[in-house]
Amino acid sequence: MNLLFLLGIVLLVAALLTAGFWARSLLRRNLGADVRMDGQLGLGQFVRPYRISLVVASALIIVQTIFDLAAPWPLKMAVDNIIGGKPLEGWMAPLNNFSTASLATIVVMAGVILVAGSGVVGYFSAYLIGAAAERVGADVRSAAFARLQHQSLHFHDRNRTGDLVARLTSDVSRTQDVLISWFQTLIPELLAVFGMLAVLFALDLQMAFAGLAVIPLLAIQIVASRTRIKNSERAVRDHYGKLAAQATDVLRNVRAVQAFFRQDDEERRFRRESTAAIRSSLFALDIRLRYAPTSDLILALGSGLILFLGIIRVTSGHMTVGTLLVILTYLSSFYHPIRSLTRLTSVFARGAASRERLMEIFSDDEVIPEDPKAIPAPRDSCALALNNVTFGYQREISVLRNVSLQINAGETVCIVGPTGVGKSTLLSLLLRFYDPDEGTITMDGIDLKRFTLRSLRDRLALVPQDTWILDGTIADNIRFGRAEATDDEIRLAGKVALVEEFAAQLPEGYYSVVGESGTRLSGGQRRRIALARALIRNAPILLLDEPTSGLDAKSEAVVIDALRRVAKNSTVVMVSHRLKLAAIADRVVVLEGGQIVEQGDPSAMIAAGGAFARLWAQHSLLIKDNKTGESLLHSSAVTFAGGANA
Fold first, then answer.
1. Distance separating the N- and C-terminal Cα atoms of the chain
2. DSSP assignment of 28-85
3. pLDDT tens profile 384-420
4. In which domain, by residue range, is 628 found?
5. Which end of the chain has fewer CB atoms surrounding its CB within 10 Å, N or C?
6. By the 8 A CB rule, do 168 and 141 touch?
């Protein structure tokens, strides 16, 4: 019967090892799969896809615990039965016929087999847990990154980029460490504790109760320390997030730092932030470590009590030396997992702090809302209208106030005005980067909120004021506007936007690498690439925020000519300080103080001498004719008339 039991255990271990091979192969498949998260379910949902591997790992942990629990028994057999001469009993009684050397060999082999079996099973359990944790970490990181891309700009305005990057890296790693600790430390140690308790109670009740005497004291210590450790670790993560944000900001703008020779100032500022982070880390370390001696002292008292009772029971004949050795071995192993469990408090506290920082990303409700019954935006006419729109980046400070503007399909509108009056903000509202605080924005009479975000933004092509350039080739940057664009389409867009002029002079042409943020390009070249990126979208509406900024007079003239051709087939909304663009506009809109103060045909507005005429004079026509001393406003009106009729 006992032999059948042993055979069953062997078959069970073999089956679990086979399952381990299979689970390991599962963890190597579908790497990089798309993952999304429901913010209401928490981070636990990321573990669910790997539950099979974790279940197999847990079963292997149980087997490993059995191997570890059996490890001291060959020592008892060696001391009591081989050295002490006590005969073996039960199913091991037939071994009494073996010689001392043979029994010693069996004991040694049993010890080696138990250690080897524990090692093999431990490898598979550790691999499955570690690989699952890596997959979970990668999924959390990908989902968090995807979430950040969909967060509204209100969220990004409030959070620094470097801190968000720290959440994607170090905070995910801390959370991943908690998962590993659960399966590699908490579960095995708990199994070991309960297994050892079962054996100890079977061997000697008095010794078992003595070993348990320290548990209440340790529990009190864990409860008392957890909250303090968690709060201190949250402070540490916040400090290092700020440090990462500062480093990112400085390195991203290193040219400005060097241009203004601010290296020493930024180094001192970084050192101050680093010092604050170190101070918080030392405080957290102090809190963690001050509890360690207490737990060690409690465990030492427990070990001393066990040793005292063991000596008394052996000398009184109530226990054999071999049994005492087994109990002492178990208690040594018993206190090790308890010590590990107490130290897990700091790991879980650090993980809890990082988990909170990650959940702030997933649970934030500032994602641009999309109607569940949203419809596709119209493809063709695409007339736009702002109806009494009021908006401010802060509720109490409005950038736009009661703005109403009709933009007809196929019309080219140029919005002008002083800096800070809300021109670029208006474009952001059209793209639904933000929603109005009051009023509505419509396309063909339908509120933009009723359209799917994808379809709405597919109808719009933006040339931003601050051109963003990817660290790739010129072709990569133009293709960013439309991923499926062909090489011929890229070259055509580049030709219209004058990218061809400088790309043709580079060794790799359109496949020349431009560097991070386009550092290998001039400002004007970056502007042309941004224009080509917008043109390649073939969108019915073009949003141009300072489209000729950074271009010389010749290039500006050619780009304006290109825009004039493009404008014939598109609805164009331009924002510009370069008032020459108004020459190709059907209508000019003047913004002042967040409100529309004038709009109409540019040549007529110049002639009327109103707000637009004053802007034109301030920017370019305060020059007086040396011979007549007359204002050139009249001649500029002629220029606009010619431009508008071209």
1. 103
2. TSSTT------TTT-GGGGTGGGHHHHHHHHHHHHHHHHHHHHTTHHHHIIIIIIIS-
3. 999 999 998 887 788 899 999 999 988 889 998 887 7
4. 375-459+571-646
5. N
6. yes
Those residues with Cβ within 8 angstroms of residue 305's Cβ, 6 or more apart along the chain or in another chain: 210, 213
pLDDT confidence of residue 385? 93
Nearest to 334 by CA among 478, 203, 431, 527: 203
Give me the half-sphere count of Cα atoms (radius 13 Å) on the Cβ side of residue 483: 1
The Cβ of residue 547 has, within 10 Å, a number of other Cβ atoms equal to 29
- 580 and 434, same structural domain? yes
On whether the CB atoms of residues 426 and 436 are closer than 8 A, the answer is no
Q: Is residue 73 part of a domain?
A: yes
- Tens digits of per-residue pLDDT, 217-248? 766 776 666 677 777 777 877 787 777 777 77
Q: Can you give the pLDDT at residue 447?
A: 93
Q: Would you list the DSSP string of 6-21?
A: HHHHHHHHHHHHHHHH
Answer whether 513's CB lies under 8 Å from 473's CB: yes
Q: Whole-angstrom Cα distance, residue 542 to residue 630? A: 38
Euclidean distance between CA atoms 429 and 414, whole angstroms: 16
The residue with greater pLDDT, 362 or 425, is 425
List the one residue out of 185, 205, 199, 117 whose CA is nearest residue 336.
185
User: How many CA atoms lie within 13 Å of 580's alpha carbon, on the beta-carbon side?
Assistant: 18
CATH number at residue 351: 1.20.1560.10
Q: What is the pLDDT of residue 388?
A: 94
The bridge status of strand 412-416 relative to strand 587-592 is parallel
User: What single-letter amino acid sits at 586?
Assistant: D
User: Mean pLDDT of all residues in the chain?
Assistant: 77
**Residue 88 half-sphere exposure toward CB, CA atoms < 13 A:** 21
Domain count, the chain: 3
Place of tokens 């008095």: 206
pLDDT tops 80 at residue 438: yes
Flag whether the pTM goes above 0.70: no
Rounded (10°) CA dihedral 228, 233, 234, 239: 130
| Single-letter residue type at 377 | A
Question: Does any domain span residue 185?
Answer: yes
pLDDT, tens digit, 9 for 90 and up, residues 339-390:
666 666 667 777 777 788 888 788 776 777 888 888 988 877 778 999 999 9
Compute the chain's Rg from CA coordinates. 37
Is residue 152 classed as helix, strand or coil in its secondary structure?
Answer: coil
What letter represents residue 103's amino acid? L
- The arithmetic mean of pLDDT across residues 157-185, rounded, is 78
Exposure string for 435-450, b = 16+ CB within 10 A, e = fewer: bbeebebbbeeeebbe
